[in-house]
Amino acid sequence: MGEMEEPSYDLTRTVCQYLDRHLAFPLLEFLEMNESGLSPYDRESVVAAKLDLLLNTNMIDFAVDIYREVHNTDAPPDDLMDRRNEVLMVLGGLQDVCSPFLVIFEDEAKLAELQEEDLFNMQHLETLGITDETLEYLYDYSKFQFDCGNYSATSEYLAVYRLLQTKNPEREFAALWGKLAADILMQSWDSAAEALNQLKDEIESHSKQDDFNPLQSLQQRTWLIHWGLFVFFNHPTGKNLIIEMLFQDKYLHTIQTNCPHILRYLTVAVLINKKRRNVLKDLVRVIQQEQYSYHDPITEFVEALYVNFDFEGAQNMLQKCEDTIRGDFFLVGCLDEFVESARLTIFEIYCRIHKCIDIDMLAGKLNMSRGAAER
Q1: What is the value of pTM for the model shown?
Q2: What is the crossing angle of helices 263-272 and 335-353, to 10°?
Q3: pLDDT tens digits, residue range 211-247?
């Protein structure tokens, strides 16, 4: 995004390295629309980054709109319009070869009948002109639809592909990644959480069967953690899920080896989840171990409070935490909850180690009124 140096606490570029380009797009939209004044990037560089991203997809009409904005022109370049025609031609061809499937999808009553009578399987579908080759075309069509930005169709078709596919485990596994991405982009959080858990199980299964070598397993878990951020901070039980998943030894190892910046998200989830404070000791241990490879105001707040018992330092760091969260796509919705939990945590630890408490002094340190501190 331009030549601007990335500030220490902005993780946009870091996180986007592990995302599909379609998943990276909402982060760029957030940077563009963020009115906190804390974005490290000027709007022009963000819009230019959006265009670069779109040019590597089949969302040509969207790319044309952004191109016009970036270059202040009404006339898109000929090569974009040529690509648009190519996309439409390929899409039409895939629709033709997938037509036996599409006919069934369009007839909801027929589809329901096949499912109710347990006839939605390849053995029966072959009598309707659907072959193994047609099934593989459905995968290609799903992937192409995803690249065109039609995430609803992608999720539906990939679910069918995985249901029917029994001979190509590599594609079945890739289809699950595609379904997770499509469900995230549709904000279908229940379906996304289900796909996330299925992927977690399949990664472990592939690892145990030596389908993945240790490096591949590490890479798969790294990607899953980053894609999971969408689920962790949007699904109603996501903050429990991130704690349950990332405190497992294999995932803690992944964080410490490949992506210590994920400690930001794990720390926020733990601090605002009062029922999961039992993992605080493990969290503090990992933060201390990784302090030289990664730190930000949120991890430093925990160190100040739980390691150094530096209440003034923790309070000073709390304002930086607020700014960091306001500028983070995944965490911005947790701001109020985090601040409340952080202040309560300061209060609890202060009370635990002091026999006499000056409410006025404590309220001042927490930037609260006396009445709020008493409550």
Answers
A1: 0.90
A2: 70
A3: 889 999 999 999 999 999 999 999 999 999 999 999 9
